[in-house]
Each structure stands twice: as structure tokens, then as C-alpha cells.
């Protein structure tokens, strides 16, 4: 449906002793990609929280590491909407160097309120997804 691209440069601090991107840093890269995707949809996450609209928390990540990235690579982080319902949002995210797939993940997010309880995804976000989720 909708795919967002965000470029990231690999810095020395992103690599491990072997000179490749440390595996946990891919989670940071896709977090940045998600944040930029939400921003391009016109949702200000700080404002959303301040208005009591909740915050997003990662509930589940299923990741597949395919090939290494190294220092100075220019990476594309792709974020693609899959589905949503109630408080849940599912995205597919991929990290590529040129056309080569290096990493991909299915990420499930939940929107939670200040008490840490699930709350409905904000309308200002879901209106971009087409039809409303089932009640």
C-alpha cells in the first residue's frame, strides 16, 4: 500500500569488531525509519503524547538478517504498512544497500496510554490506511 524510504549512512560507531554493522543497530535503523514514516504522514508523536493520544511501543519483531552492511554504506530503510486493528499496527521494514536486501523485519506496534494500557490508534494516523479497522 504505502512505502516510505529513509536513508541512513553507516558510521564507524555502528560497526562491531568484525567491521560490520552490529546486529542490534538494525533495530535502531528501522526505528528511525518508522519515526520518519509517521512524520511524513503528518503525525507529531510528541504532540500526540501531550494530548493524551498515546505513544507507540514495539510489541513484537520478527527479524531476518540476510547480508552485512559495512562502514560508510548508504542504506535505504523501507517502511511499509501491512495492517492495523484497534491499538495494533503491523509494518514490514527492510534495510537495503542499493537493490540488495540486507535485513527485513515484521514489526508489531501497539499504541499505549500513560498508564501503559492499549488505546486505539489515533485517527490522524489510521485515516491514511483507507478503511477503518473492525470494531
Automatic annotation (TrEMBL):
Class of the enzyme per the UniProt entry, highest EC level: hydrolase
Protein name in UniProt: Acyl-CoA thioester hydrolase
KW Hydrolase (keyword) present: yes
GO function terms (MF aspect): fatty acyl-CoA hydrolase activity
Protein source organism: Roseibaca calidilacus
Keyword ATP-binding: no
InterPro entries linked: 4-hydroxybenzoyl-CoA_TE, HotDog_dom_sf, Tol-Pal_acyl-CoA_thioesterase, YbgC/YbaW
EC number: 3.1.2.-
Keyword entries, A-Z: Hydrolase
Similarity comment text for this entry: Belongs to the 4-hydroxybenzoyl-CoA thioesterase family.
Amino acid at each position: 500500500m504505502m512505502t516510505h524510504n529513509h536513508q541512513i549512512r553507516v558510521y564507524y560507531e555502528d560497526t562491531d569488531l568484525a567491521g560490520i554493522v552490529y546486529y542490534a543497530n538494525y533495530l535502531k535503523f528501522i526505528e528511525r525509519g518508522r519515526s520518519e514514516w509517521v512524520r511524513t504522514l503528518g503525525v507529531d508523536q510528541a504532540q500526540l503524547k501531550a494530548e493524551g493520544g498515546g505513544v507507540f511501543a514495539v510489541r513484537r519483531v520478527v527479524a531476518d538478517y540476510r547480508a552485512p552492511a559495512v562502514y560508510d554504506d548508504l542504506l535505504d530503510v523501507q517502511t511499509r504498512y501491512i495492517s492495523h486493528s484497534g491499538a495494533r499496527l503491523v509494518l514490514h521494514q527492510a534495510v537495503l544497500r542499493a537493490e540488495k536486501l540486507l535485513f527485513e523485519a515484521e514489526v508489531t506496534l501497539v499504541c499505549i496510554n500513560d498508564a501503559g494500557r492499549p488505546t486505539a490508534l489515533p485517527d490522524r494516523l489510521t485515516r491514511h490506511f483507507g478503511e477503518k479497522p473492525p470494531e
